[in-house]
Amino acid sequence: MPFCYVGTQPSSPVADAPLNNDIKIFYRTYGGGPTKVLLIIGLAATHEAWGPQIKGLTGTTVSNDDDDDDVRVVWSGEEVNGGIHVCAFDNRGVGRSSVAVSKSEYSTKIMAKDAIALLDHLGWKKAHVFGHSMGAMIACKVAAMVPDRVLSLALLNVTGGGFQCFPKLDQKTISVAYRFLKAKTPEQRAAVDLDTHYSQEYLEEYVGTDKRRAILYQQYVKGISTTGMQSNYGFDGQLNACWTHKMTETEIEVIKSAGFLVSVIHGRHDIIAQIYYAKRLAERLHPVARMVDLHGGHLVSHERPEEVNQALFDLIKASEVNMSPHDWTNLPKKESWWNEKRVLIITNIQAGRNVSLNGCMLEKLHLCLLYFFGLLVLAFEYGRKLLRSLKPTQVGVSPSYIESQ
Question: Whole-prediction pTM value?
């Protein structure tokens, strides 16, 4: 089995904090060639969730690391010329990677160090780093910590962490959150996962004589039952990593000045990671960032795989030809804070309206509601834990993607 033992590399590029020698990271590689791509998956998901992207980038879903020599793919000589070599891995706390018990051993910075250690293990000096949701948060940290090793950065369905992880406060999302916390069986978990991962329009489409929801439901139940359950330690730890994630202005400036391009890819109907926050992150990364707004949900990488894969190919190609940020970005030029306020005041005066604080007050009210909703969720979770038996209730992992952030 291919494992990377975190912290055992003789010369880690990140020396400000030691890595945990007890953690091992399970990974798979696919394809081959001079172009290296590291895929970082999100909360509660395994590396297999990158299936559509692995297939699109390399043309195969057969791992180079397969134990069966009869199906192992060998890349050498002319076969790798111009090809893409992909590595996808299970984050700590899920799949076949180690599960740290303490929440303090989970943060996007710590998990970024896992990813950097894996680059060392593979001998990859530079790579395109693509992340989804929590994996995109981790990818941001990788880019800020070792910018000289990043060729490009793709952030799929990302937010800035913390309160931005909360979905919109409406009846549907509150119901989904409640069902998610109560889910104890593969059937219950599969049903709620579909509503969190995909747009309703996509689920209600017919594939032959059956709705896609029914087909995916059976696949999810089978996958959760087959692959086993994620431990409570792993889920709580990864959730803590999302909640404590934050990109400082210094880190943003490091990414902007590093010389690589960024693509922020998002499903506009994502009820988990709201697209508003993804756009805000893209604007913070102007002028090196491009915003790709697609019709889909949180798992837009599965719902719109061709469009997502094309966006990734565009990013790789633009990086290879050293496209300038001015030609790459599709975001408007960012104005200074004073200019933005001045234009807003002039616009309101010309329209004959008084400048008010209503917008600011509404935003603060929304944040307060999110905060109290978070407290209610935490209180419910702790109450459930008190009533839990000695054998912990497990959280399922789907064959494709199980992620609530």
Answer: 0.79
